[in-house]
Amino acid sequence: MNLSPPVILTIAGSDSGGGAGIQADIKAISATGGYACSVITALTAQNTCGVEAVSAVEPDFVRAQLDAVLYDMPVRAVKIGMLANQAIIREVAAVLARSPHLPVILDPVMVATSGDPLLDEQAMTALIDDLIPRATVLTPNLPEAACLTGQPVPTSIEQMHELVPALRHLGCPYVMLKGGHLHQTPESVDMWISRDTCQTLRARRVETTNTHGTGCSLSAAIASFYAQGMTPIEAGRAAKQYLTEALAHSHQLTIGRGAGPVHHFYAYPDNLCLLPAEHAVAELP
């Protein structure tokens, strides 16, 4: 059998713990039917408990990775995550300018779970000026949307609606505003914003501590479904459904001591050879 799945390029940082970043993107793309290739922008020393150190990749080497992949691989869509600094953002923007019709799903990784900023002011300016207008779909969570618009972090669905005009002003045709931080709501509510419409995407809220890499996985799944021929809104809905199920099945995984990953391959249990946790690891030191 000769398979030719759509190729999706993920541009992001590496998570040594495997739950987020490039590793999560590759899993999500693979689980949803795509073929993942990658460009690494930063190396992180992290696990389920937190990030210990970050080392940005030299911008010239980021470009070398991009050139190598795009020369050879028939990339159908691009997912962008952590970009680390202004120089890397400008390199990525310059290379993508050569392929103006290539769909780009941009997850603006700007704020850590702790609330600490991950981009300095110059990098944020480059992201807003050089990359967001080039993107097809922008997928900010609530703290990231607040940073991008200069407004307070929404604490209700009504306040999410108040961000819509400012998010449209950024120049990206589609924005998926993720409401997962509204823990008081019984549902997980996102907003799909286009230039002239705003639709609400709802799913059951899954109570779990295994939430590491949710934003990465969602945007990667959008890119994968988009590359397979779905419209942007169809890809957004399908990716939200995929992530909801990956969260719902995450209790089947016992990984690390902190916030564990979602179960990217929940639909393929026969191929994972999953052992009960007590047999998989004898004892953690």
From TrEMBL:
Encoding gene, per UniProt annotation: thiD
NCBIfam families according to UniProt: HMP-P_kinase (TIGR00097)
Pathway entry: Cofactor biosynthesis; thiamine diphosphate biosynthesis
Entry GO MF terms: hydroxymethylpyrimidine kinase activity; phosphomethylpyrimidine kinase activity
Keywords: Kinase, Plasmid, Transferase
The protein's Enzyme Commission number: 2.7.1.49
CDD domains found in the cross-reference section: HMPP_kinase
Name this protein carries in UniProt: hydroxymethylpyrimidine kinase
Top-level enzyme category: transferase
Pyridoxamine kinase/Phosphomethylpyrimidine kinase domain segment(s): 15-263
